[in-house]
Amino acid sequence: MFSLKSKTARWCTVVCLVGGLITSSSAVASQVKKPVVQGSSEHQELTSTYHRTDEVLKKLETKPPRFIVSETQYKDQPTPDVADPPSEDPAKAPSKTVYLTFDDGPHKVSGQILSLLDEFDAKATFFMLDGNIRNFPDAVKKMAEAGHSLGAHGVTHDKTKIYQSPQTVVAEMDQTLNTIKEITGIDSTLIRTPYGSAPYMKDPYKKAVSDKGYQLWDWNVDSKDWYYRDKRLVDNTIAQVAEKAKKDEPLVILLHEREETLAQLPELLEYLKKQNYDFKALDTEMIPIQLK
After folding, report:
1. Buried residues in 193-218 as b, exposed as e (16+ CB within 10 A)
2. What distance in Å separates the CA atoms of residue 134 and residue 125, rounded to the nearest whole number?
3. Which of 83, 143, 179, 259 could connect to 148 by a Cys-Cys bridge, CB 3.0–4.6 Å?
4. How far apart are CA 261 and CA 264, in angstroms?
5. C-alpha–C-alpha distance, residues 38 and 16, integer Å
6. Are 104 and 256 in contact (CB under 8 A)?
7. For the segment 213-235, what is each residue's pLDDT rounded down to a tens digit?
8. Are 289 and 219 in contact (CB under 8 A)?
9. pLDDT tens-digit series, residues 125-137
10. Distance between CA 225 and CA 163 in Å, rounded?
């Protein structure tokens, strides 16, 4: 009997303890879910925020992730090289044209000038004097064979003689062009009068050469190699080329066949080549540049 009573007492004690724990847990849960302070706007606002947050979290749990990146997706993709962006190829830049013209030849350095032009794949135009053509006929032949343009610069290069009248101008040009044809077989109509078409070539003079079918050419870039005998002629020419390049007109450079010009010519050609200029010869289809 004693042992039955003892067992019964122990079971009653366990049941009471379990019941107390359950009651305590319910009380705590009720206090967490329902705030004690009623009517407080702060607590009401906080409660509604909790509810909204719960709703958002529940919605997010039901949505798939926005970005899913597999481990192999970019495995074979090259890494972009941001440190070395591709640069523009200078060879693809549009080419420009420059017309080199040489006066007062041929000269004893004509052969060297022609060799230098050939190195740069450059064509030029030579306005020559009749007496020099007679003195250096082989140089004139080489000019023609290389594809350069040939023109007349007169006979005397003396303004008191050539500019006596329109007829004297035409006569000097006729004689020089006839000599060119005799030596090379080329029937040229390109001319450049001494000192250019201004101030000595008045309108009657211009009309006279035009009536003969001649194209009277001047220049718009003066190297002044007739004055500068050193690197200044290169600097002077480059400065004018840079300025004229902004305008829509052909670049016609005045040079002379002389030793000092030959010495500076490689640097000038190198600069023009790096600026992507093509060297071409004047032709009869072009509209001549004339001084104003």
Report:
1. bbebbeeebeeebbebbeeeebbbbb
2. 18
3. 143
4. 5
5. 34
6. yes
7. 999 999 999 999 999 999 999 99
8. yes
9. 999 999 999 999 9
10. 24
Cβ atoms within 10 Å of 277's Cβ, excluding its own:
21
CA-CA distances (angstroms) from residue 56 to 27, 32, 60, 62, 63?
A: 29, 21, 6, 10, 11
Handedness of CA 46, 47, 50, 56 (dihedral sign): negative
Weakly modelled stretches of the chain, pLDDT under 50: 1-9, 11-54, 56-88, 90
- Mode of pairing for the β-strands spanning 251-256 and 215-216: unpaired
What is the spatial distance between Cα 122 and Cα 117, in angstroms, rounded to a whole number? 5
Residues β-bridged to residue 105: 128
C-alpha 143: how far from chain center? 33
**Would you say 212 and 205 are in contact if contact means Cβ atoms under 8 Å apart?**
no
**Domains, the chain, with CATH or none:** 96-279 (3.20.20.370)
Query: d(Cα 38, Cα 238) in Å, to the nearest integer?
Result: 91
3-class DSSP assignment, residue 190: strand
Helix, strand, coil share of the chain (percent; to 5): 50, 15, 40
Beta bridge partner(s), residue 279: 98
Give residue 31's Cα distance to chain centre: 79
Residue 248: per-residue pLDDT: 80
Strands 124-129 and 96-105, how do they pair?
Answer: parallel
Strand stretches in 24-179, DSSP E: 96-105, 124-129, 149-154
Among the listed residues 94, 92, 88, 98, the one whose alpha carbon sits nearest the alpha carbon of residue 238: 98
